[in-house]
RNA sequence: GGGGGAGUGUCCCGAGCGGCAAAGGGGGCGGACUGUAAAUCCGCUGGCUACGCCUUCGUAGGUUCGAGUCCUACCUCCCCCA
């Protein structure tokens, strides 16, 4: 791998963020000589980004940390088109309201990683609805569409594989790449953006933008992609025991977020420290060095706490670490575990275990699932395995702390609290 | 416009002579082993007021004691010919 002169590229490169760069020397020179504005696009398909997108946010973070200007582009306009899924079933397009709500909700997270403002390196959040929604179709075709060769678009892997797999590709989706290319050009014209970053799957789209820029007379533009991240065993990033690893605290508590990182596979620890924390490289090297055998668990805790601290703040991260310590290392309970409140009278009367685990707390999906889990010994009340699906949980099960601890498997715990 | 295929358990792929809650994978979940890891092994993987009941095989009808399986129409997709 080349050694870069610029702080930004050197940092990204040594931390493992770089997959491809369109013109490494040129871009390096650019970063070494001026303050560069670069962007990454995010689709507002959900009210929160999840761990899979964290790597992109970290790239913006480093961009700013090394003296440049990050732009997060929200796809308020492209969201209208929707990135059609592979399945048929013309998924309902999102309404404008949903898109706007999602964007508002996603915004909160960025301020944990970037500082916004008018300073030369102040981060910006831009919505491509700004120029896409009022686009005039005919004008657009004449100004932008004429620069695209269908022959060439058909030759892109993203399109080709789709056609070869005999899966339909709607015109809508076909246009998505044009809009994204156009975004790059608009950002370049309006805000002086020079670089677009993204996951490696975005390479073709980004390069399209560069080409369009050439034809439409922008400055030289650049592309930088990050590797597609999977865990060492091949799973996609961003799935936890209970679903997606959302970044918004109201969708996934800091404790659960911490747990996700705590459970990192051994083989991923060093890589994740580089990608998802801002610990200095020599510090990471030291940690990786002492992380042999079971000692690696200590390093995983550091990883979890550092990642959580960046997102939710140091205090929340340490609270999560403490909760985990009490729960797992002392086998006790901590008031900070996820808690479900229940009317005291109801508990007094006694509630069936099935109902408690399924309806009341949602730890398992249904009564049937609860029954199956009991059969295989997966449910516990106050750390005692449930063996009878007709058993009931009542006020007698309250611990001295005044709660009932319910566990599903070894890692999922909920406290039942009478009110 | 003509001809030929396909749509299965809403995570995915994928079998299915008219008796099917539907084979088999993958994934996921639980258990054992460990270190809250990986690998490995075992079990589970429609719902319920549960020895019974209800809802599932593109949609809507029909034939049958009985249909994922047969017939009709429709929808969507793919391939070949024009």
TrEMBL record:
Keywords: Aminoacyl-tRNA synthetase, ATP-binding, Cytoplasm, Ligase, Nucleotide-binding, Protein biosynthesis, RNA-binding. It is found in: Cytoplasm. CDD domains: S4, TyrRS_core. It comes from the Bacteria. It catalyses: tRNA(Tyr) + L-tyrosine + ATP = L-tyrosyl-tRNA(Tyr) + AMP + diphosphate + H(+). L-tyrosine binds at residues 39, 176, 180. GO terms for cellular component: cytosol. The keyword RNA-binding applies. It holds the Pfam family SYY_C-terminal. One of its GO terms (biological process) is tyrosyl-tRNA aminoacylation. A motif ('KMSKS' region) lies at residues 236-240. ATP binds at residue 239. Gene3D superfamilies: HUPs, RNA-binding S4 domain, Tyrosyl-Transfer RNA Synthetase. Residues 341-415 form the Tyrosine--tRNA ligase SYY-like C-terminal domain. NCBIfam families: tyrS (TIGR00234). Homodimer. Catalyzes the attachment of tyrosine to tRNA(Tyr) in a two-step reaction: tyrosine is first activated by ATP to form Tyr-AMP and then transferred to the acceptor end of tRNA(Tyr). This is Tyrosine--tRNA ligase. It comes from Ancylobacter defluvii. The gene is tyrS.
């Amino acid at each position: 791998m080349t050694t870069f002169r610029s702080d930004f590229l050197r940092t990204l490169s040594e931390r493992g963020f770089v997959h491809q760069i369109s013109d490494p020397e040129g871009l390096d020179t650019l970063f070494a000589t001026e303050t560069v504005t670069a962007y990454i696009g995010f689709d507002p398909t959900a009210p929160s980004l999840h761990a899979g997108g964290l790597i992109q946010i970290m790239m913006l973070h480093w961009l700013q940390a090394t003296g440049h200007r990050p732009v997060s582009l929200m796809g308020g306009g492209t969201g209208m088109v929707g990135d059609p899924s592979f399945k048929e079933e013309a998924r309902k397009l999102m309404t404008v309201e949903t898109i706007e709500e999602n964007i508002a909700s996603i915004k909160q997270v960025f301020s944990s990683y970037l500082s916004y403002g008018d300073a030369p390196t102040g981060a910006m959040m831009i919505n491509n609805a700004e120029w896409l929604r009022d686009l005039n179709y005919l004008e657009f075709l004449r100004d932008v569409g004429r620069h695209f060769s269908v022959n060439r678009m058909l030759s892109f892997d993203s399109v080709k594989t789709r056609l070869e797999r005999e899966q339909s590709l709607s015109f809508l989706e076909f246009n998505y790449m044009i809009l994204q290319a156009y975004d790059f050009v608009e950002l370049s014209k309006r805000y002086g953006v020079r670089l677009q970053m993204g996951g490696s799957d975005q390479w073709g789209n980004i390069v399209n933008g560069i080409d369009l820029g050439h034809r439409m007379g922008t400055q030289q533009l650049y592309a930088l992609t990050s590797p597609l991240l999977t865990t060492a065993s091949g799973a996609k990033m961003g799935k936890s025991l209970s679903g997606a690893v959302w970044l918004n605290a109201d969708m996934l508590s800091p404790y659960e977020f911490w747990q996700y990182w705590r459970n990192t596979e051994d083989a991923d620890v060093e890589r994740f420290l580089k990608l998802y924390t801002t610990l200095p490289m020599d510090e990471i090297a030291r940690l990786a060095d002492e992380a042999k055998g079971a000692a690696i668990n200590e390093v995983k805790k550091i990883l979890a706490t550092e990642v959580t601290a960046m997102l939710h703040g140091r205090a929340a991260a340490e609270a999560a670490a403490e909760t985990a310590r009490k729960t797992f290392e002392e086998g006790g309970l901590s008031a900070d575990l996820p808690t479900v409140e229940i009317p005291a009278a109801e508990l007094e009367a006694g509630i069936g275990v099935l109902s408690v685990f399924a309806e009341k707390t949602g730890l398992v999906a249904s009564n049937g699932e609860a029954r199956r889990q009991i059969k295989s010994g997966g449910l516990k009340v106050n750390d005692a395995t449930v063996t009878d699906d007709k058993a009931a949980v009542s006020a007698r099960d309250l611990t001295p702390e005044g709660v009932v601890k319910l566990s599903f498997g070894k890692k999922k715990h909920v406290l039942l609290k009478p009110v």
